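Dear colleagues,

For the upcoming journal club I promised to circulate an example of a predicted protein-ligand complex. I picked one with heme C because it came up in last month's discussion. The inputs are reproduced below in full, followed by the predicted structure.
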Amino acid sequence: MVSIGKLARTLLLLAFCMGLATPPLVRAQDESSHIGGMTGRASVGKELFKRYCFGCHNLSGDGNGMEAQWIDPKPRDFTAAVFKCRSTPTGTLPTDDDLFNAITRGFDTTFMPQWRSLPPQQRADLVAYIKTFSPRWKTEKPGTPITIPPETPITTDSILRGRQLFQKMECWKCHGPEGHGDGPSASTLTDNKDRPIRPYDFSTGTRFKCGATNRDLYQIFMTGLDGTPMPSFGDQLKPEEAWDLVHFLRTLQVSLKTPELAMFRQWESAHAGQLKPIGPDQGTGGGGK
Ligand code: HEC
Ligand code: HEC
């Protein structure tokens, strides 16, 4: 005869096991992403991931896929949930849109392809699945995207103020006085996995990893590239200063012949020798005008 006590214990045990067993099952189905009007499903994303992404990012999402050994920079480790391209402040999780855009856009100058060939719904499913690799997505919410006010007019004054900020914020220490990625600190930099990493070389004119527009550029240095030495300047720059800096950075993209560069060259030819070169000799006092 089964005693009441034993029955109760058995039932309890059963309930306990079900309790343990149920959450992952439920979670696997519920994990979703929201991009525009689309809802991405992790269960669908998983199959796509196994088809297109695991060779680099690995089935476990840790970035050590078969191809990873040949690749520099290395594929992202999704178990850490640290992402470069975010609309959200440094240290916070990106939004679903941020991940969606990164997948769509791909990372120029790296092996991360663009995935425009996949229908948007599939990219949304992949976003949902990527968020299953780290427990951070269960305990934290994505950061609140930074506000980007309308762009200020592109003027010589704005460019010159931006040049002063490039000096004062010491961007040149990594990116070099001319933006060639060859500043005094450049050769010493490592990422969050202790791997050597180079600052961006503006003169090549290659697209930024996190976008191509002036708004993207604004967002890049106001949120930082987490996991790399590229810091966030969101706490140090006012919005109008950030736009000045954007305008100056465009003059460093010498192979693109940007309107900012044309404007700056014209000013320089009329004011020959008036600008002190950017670099250590100037201190952090100002860009010299
Ligand atoms: C050929 C290798 C390769 C394949 C295939 C690949 N990736 Fe990547 N991926 C990379 C590399 C390399 C990086 C890191 C680039 C960097 O840090 O500059 C990356 C970065 C990322 C990031 C990080 C974005 C950020 O802001 O930090 C996401 C998300 C991503 N990949 C998603 C995917 C998805 C989804 C797929 C499949 C549809 C995929 N990748 C396929 C190589 C690959
Ligand atoms: C401590 C070194 C360091 C300093 C200081 C620094 N950067 Fe960077 N920056 C980097 C590194 C390293 C990268 C490349 C990151 C990568 O490729 O993942 C980078 C990348 C960038 C990029 C390209 C981002 C992309 O999406 O590809 C821009 C734009 C940029 N930095 C602007 C600036 C500006 C503006 C300043 C000063 C306000 C600045 N950086 C200061 C190290 C630095």
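Two points we might discuss: The chain has eleven helices and two strands. The chain has a mean pLDDT of 91.

See you all on Thursday,
B. R.
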